[in-house]
Write a structure and sequence with these properties.
Layout: E1 8-10, E2 15-20, E3 26-30, E4 33-49, E5 54-71, H1 76-83, E6 86-87, E7 93-94, E8 97-109, H2 120-124, E9 128-131, E10 136-137, E11 148-163, E12 174-185, E13 190-202, E14 219-225, E15 235-238
Antiparallel strand pairs: 1-12, 2-3, 2-12, 4-5, 5-14, 6-7, 8-11, 9-10, 9-11, 12-13, 13-14, 13-15
Length: 239
């Protein structure tokens, strides 16, 4: 029978689920994490006196818990939660837009003078042709054979989970966070552990790195645990 004195070691990251606070509806599930850490800090104040002015009594205060999640991959939904979405005309927070306009561009060398020298892909897209020498728009009839041009056009796309809009006035929200992992005991057997954070505010500071070498970029989420009404900021459960 398991005892509270049993010893365990944690090697695996957790599978983490985000829930809406209050409704308890799951909004995001992450099972591709690289790192999951829970950091607990507090401040101290002390009464000093006597020879050497040493600390006589110490009080602890200002407990803070920070949840750090580092994801190897991202989804449009995880990006939406990280950036907070935007507020629509009705005042509702929209995480993902289903219709958006995509700006596209291309470069081509005219095969002939006039419109016939423009590739059909650009004419069908109603692209605007630009002269790269002076960045001015060019009438299609004035295209010169053998010269290189830039084309720019816009396409409307629709469907599910297309666009995350980052608004200046909107920020990430507060979520209930539940993580599941397992720890191995000194007997070699694994036991499941769960941490439950009733309220965690996602940090608004984000860095997205695009690079050609080294390991793929990770996507970090930092959450500050806030105090709920009952004061219980974190639960660790073995099951």
């Amino acid at each position: 029978m398991a005892s509270v004195l049993d010893l365990y070691g944690i090697k695996e990251v957790a599978d983490v689920t985000f829930y809406e606070v209050g409704t308890n509806v799951p909004v995001l599930y992450l099972d591709s994490l690289k790192v999951t850490t829970i950091e607990e800090t507090a401040s101290q104040s002390s009464a000093r006196g006597g020879k050497g002015n040493s600390e006589l009594i110490i009080w602890d205060f200002g407990k803070e818990i920070t949840l750090n999640i580092e994801d190897a991959l991202f989804s449009m939904k995880s990006m939406a939660l990280m950036h907070g979405g935007h507020t629509d005309a009705s005042g509702n927070v929209v995480l993902l837009d289903t219709t958006s306009s995509v700006q596209k561009s291309g470069k081509f060398t005219a095969t002939a003078s006039g419109a016939s020298g423009i590739p059909s892909a650009y004419t069908s897209a109603n692209a605007i042709i630009y002269d790269p020498d002076n960045s001015s728009a060019v009438n299609s009839t004035n295209v010169v054979s053998g010269k290189t041009y830039l084309a720019s056009w816009s396409e409307t796309i629709s469907g599910e989970n297309n666009t995350v809009t980052i608004s200046a006035k909107d920020f990430p929200g507060t979520y209930k966070v539940v993580g599941d992992t397992f720890a191995r005991g000194t007997d070699g057997k694994d036991s499941f552990f769960q941490f439950v954070v009733p309220q965690a505010k996602m940090s608004a500071e984000k860095t997205i790195t695009m690079q050609a070498d080294g390991d793929p970029s990770t996507f970090s989420m930092t959450l500050k645990v806030t105090r709920p009404d009952d004061g219980n900021m974190l639960k660790l459960i073995k099951y």
